[in-house]
Design brief:
- This protein has about 550 residues and is mostly helical.
- It has 17 helices and no strands.
- Helix 5 runs antiparallel to helix 7.
- The two termini are about 25 Å apart.
């Protein structure tokens, strides 16, 4: 059994040269091959896009504050929700945890000095930014009004020319996702420390392994779809447009074959984060470790079999709809395994209510609501009533924001002492977690009610009967924005004024906690040897406050 006392030094194990100050100057950062620095480059990029997408969301909510479309024109409103979706999904939610936390932590969790392909890792960040430039150009040039799904023939015939720029940006960005997934898979297979067998791996690693499989297998399908769309738009090749002899339903099949697995690219890494947090702050091994590990792989596999539930009202056959409906219920099982096993882990645990744990509790509650409402949409009859209403918007955000973003925020708070070498103000962090949870529910729960009552999504004006619910939703969005802004402020503050963190402030059981905070460039002076099982803690050990270095 690992002795966690040895991981809590009285003196901060901060080496004279750690990854943050190994080399100074912009050039040393832009040409770095250190996975930790590349993670921080990604952190800057995805944070910028998170707040850009948040600005679009704020404008959407301001427009919906009143029933009449009195803030922007219908065409502008179409562009607002389109750019909000594109920015948040392709440039924040998909890369956030793998590119930031995965990049930073995966080699350390494996006992390695870096990822398998450091140069490709840096290349993936540059590719991400090149794709972002094309997308930003399209925004500046007037935006896109197709919705983030780019449904044809609207995107292939009738929309403005910025569709090509955005599609090119997403196409290029896809290569960043593929290269990151490839890098992770090779690293996990070939660079584990001695003694670190597959069933001693942290569940964070299992989640990223499953995510990487989806990235490699699914992203090329989206790339091919975008190429076909461009061929039709630019050269009049009849693929999707009926007027050219094409089939618009074909586009939906290709798009959702990637985009539903992409939902699991966004949520699986968060599930890995939650497993780490719950184990550490309940001081227990994850109940049913192997079931939770294999459930990640099951989600990755089943995620490719349920794309048709997005198309129940598209004209596909009733038989296909019945099959996709059954499979959509079936894919909920591995997700339920995780939730039940997390709950069983908490049972009789020595639970600490530190900030990361608050985000974990928030994740579980919101994810359950999002998952249960997803079963409503998997039912053929109910989906006919609920599709294209705000019920779908609420369900999607309960999974993506209530799930993926809560996991991301929990992970940032959990590993921030390791990333920065400093502790953040716990009181402010708990307050921000509470504000995020309350603001989120105030924003999106009223949308379930509005959607069930028949309010359509993607309309800039609506019937008067929905105004009270929309006022609540807009007020909640304001509260949620404050909750998201607070961590950025106190994280930056902590870099200079926060108490110095020990090597293992919580304390955790993984290899990343056996090196200094912040880590040296090479992660470990000597390659560690693993002799303990995953999530072994001191029996009966309680944890009330984080351990700051003396």
């Amino acid at each position: 059994m690992i002795n966690t006392e040895t991981l809590q030094p009285a003196e901060p194990l901060v080496p004279r040269t750690h990854y943050l100050n190994a080399n100074y100057g912009i050039k040393s950062w832009l040409l770095t091959k250190d996975h930790k620095r590349i993670a921080l480059l990604y952190l800057a990029s995805v944070t910028a896009f998170f707040f850009l997408g948040g600005v679009f969301a704020l404008l959407i909510r301001l427009e919906l504050l009143t029933p009449k479309g009195d803030l922007v024109q219908p065409e502008t409103y179409n562009k607002l929700f389109t750019m909000h979706g594109i920015v948040m999904i392709f440039f924040f939610l998909i890369p956030a945890i793998p590119a930031v936390l995965g990049n930073f932590l995966l080699p350390m969790m494996l006992g390695a000095k870096d990822l398998a392909f450091p140069k490709i890792n840096l290349l993936s960040w540059y590719i991400y930014n090149v794709g972002a430039i094309f997308t930003l150009y399209a925004i500046i040039a007037g935006g896109v009004d197709t919705g983030w799904t780019f449904y044809t023939p609207l995107s292939s015939v009738y929309s403005n020319g910025n569709v090509i720029a955005v599609a090119l940006g997403i196409f290029i960005n896809g290569f960043s996702s593929i290269l990151t997934g490839l890098n992770f898979i090779v690293t996990i297979h070939t660079m584990r420390a001695p003694g670190l067998t597959w069933f001693r791996l942290p569940l964070f690693v299992w989640a990223h392994y499953a995510t990487s499989l989806i990235q490699i297998l699914g992203t090329p399908v989206l790339a091919v779809t975008i190429v076909l769309l461009a061929l039709e738009r630019l050269f009049g090749v009849g693929i999707f447009s009926p007027s050219l002899g094409g089939d618009p339903i074909l586009f939906q099949h290709l798009f959702w074959f990637y985009s539903h697995p992409a939902v699991y690219i966004m949520i699986l890494p968060s599930m890995g984060v939650i497993s780490e947090i719950i184990a550490t702050f309940s001081r227990k091994k994850i109940f049913g470790y192997k079931f939770v590990a294999f459930s990640s792989l099951a989600i990755a596999v089943y995620g490719f079999l349920v794309w048709g539930h997005h198309m129940f009202v598209s004209g596909q056959s009733v038989y296909a709809g019945m099959v996709f409906s059954f499979l959509s219920y079936f894919v909920a099982i591995p997700s339920a395994v995780k939730v039940f096993n997390w709950t069983a882990t908490l049972y009789k645990g020595s639970i600490s209510y530190a900030t990361p744990m608050l985000y974990a509790f928030g994740f579980i509650g919101l994810f359950i609501i999002g998952g249960m409402t997803g079963l409503f949409l998997a039912a053929l009859g109910l989906d006919v009533h609920l599709t294209d209403t705000y019920f779908v918007v609420a369900h999607f955000h309960y999974i993506m924001v209530g799930g993926a973003v809560m996991g991301y925020m929990g992970g940032m708070h959990y590993w921030w002492p390791k990333i920065s070498g400093r502790m953040y103000p716990e009181g402010w962090a708990k307050l921000s977690a509470l504000i995020v949870f309350l603001g989120f529910n105030l924003t999106f729960f009223p949308q379930f009610l509005a959607g069930y009552m028949g309010m359509p999504r993607r309309y800039h004006a609506y019937a008067d009967q929905f105004q009270v619910l929309n006022v609540l939703s807009t007020a909640g969005a304001s509260v949620l924005g404050v909750g998201y802004l607070m961590p950025m402020i106190y994280f930056i503050w902590s870099m200079r004024y926060g108490p110095i963190a020990s090597a293992n402030p919580w304390p955790g059981s993984g290899l990343e906690w056996q090196t200094a905070s912040p880590p040296p460039t090479e992660n470990f002076i000597d390659t560690p040897t693993v002799t303990w099982e995953a999530y072994e803690f001191e029996e009966g050990q309680n944890l009330n406050v984080p351990v700051a270095a003396k």
